[in-house]
Design goal:
single chain; 258 residues; alpha/beta; Rossmann fold; 14 helices; globular
């Protein structure tokens, strides 16, 4: 099982749209996928029509009285399950801090899911916190959406420095989101991005009202606009991510994408 987080310090960069669409693309390719919404706003659950079905599960999961399999819900997308968030998740840092293994607890909660799923996708809240450290320690890969602004580039540099300071063994996979190459500023940011993110994912997610419609359609982009540029971009992004997985997972991805 592989754990893929969609995370960055900055908010408003398209983390949830990425997490939902990447999870849906992996499921479409035949993977058994669990999307865990760690943000108390619960946007992933809303997009996948499972909002309101989670009942104060955050503390129960951290303390071990519930498992991810106990609270995972089916979605309209085949092979895609979701653990929706609720307002109790706003206190996840407190729940984690009360545990003796507070910086590694998230990884321990994910581990039992390997019998049920090939891929766990984490939709993460912004910021730097104890939960963030858990995400960085408990994930196998971190996708980092970066929008074409100087502040977004700055937060990527801050995240890189934090990982270096904490001596964490994790590789970031940043990519550009909400990009409009017709704009000079966006092109300038793209050039700067190439310099500070040599291991960037090359696929870019375009700025588009089609992505914004996720909140109205309450579905991944491919479900309502299958031939659109954003749908192709998310499919390409998942394929590019799958090529960065270890050999066994690359073989699995290739076999299931046929």
């Amino acid at each position: 099982m592989w754990t893929l987080a969609v995370y960055t310090i900055k908010g408003g960069v398209g983390k949830t749209a990425t997490a939902v669409n990447i999870a849906a693309e992996a499921a479409r390719a035949g993977w058994r996928v669990l999307l865990w919404d760690l943000d108390p706003q619960g946007a992933s659950g809303f997009y996948l029509r499972t909002e309101g079905k989670a009942k104060s599960t955050g503390q129960k999961l951290v303390e071990g009285s519930k498992t991810l399999m106990d609270v995972a819900l089916r979605t309209d997308q085949p092979r895609l399950h979701v653990v929706p968030s609720d307002m109790s998740y706003r206190n996840l840092d407190l729940f984690l801090d009360a545990m003796s293994n507070s910086k590694k607890r998230l990884g321990e909660m994910i581990q039992p899911a390997e019998d049920e799923y090939n891929l766990v996708v984490l939709d993460c809240p912004p910021g730097l916190s104890l939960l963030s450290e858990n995400i960085l320690r408990g994930s196998d890969g971190i996708m980092v959406p970066v929008i074409p602004t100087t502040l977004s580039l700055r937060t990527l540099e801050q995240l890189n420095q934090f990982i270096k300071d904490q001596k964490l063994d994790i590789e970031l996979w940043p990519f550009l989101s909400m990009i409009d190459s017709r704009k000079r500023l966006h092109r300038d940011i793209e050039e700067a991005f190439d310099k500070i993110a040599p291991k960037r994912l090359k696929t870019e997610i375009p700025l588009s009202v089609i992505v914004e419609r996720m909140g109205i359609e309450r579905a991944p982009v491919r479900a309502y606009a299958p031939t659109s540029r954003p749908a192709k971009a998310f499919a390409d992004l998942w394929y590019e991510v799958s090529l960065r997985l270890p050999p066994y997972y690359r073989t699995l991805a290739a076999r299931r994408s046929r």
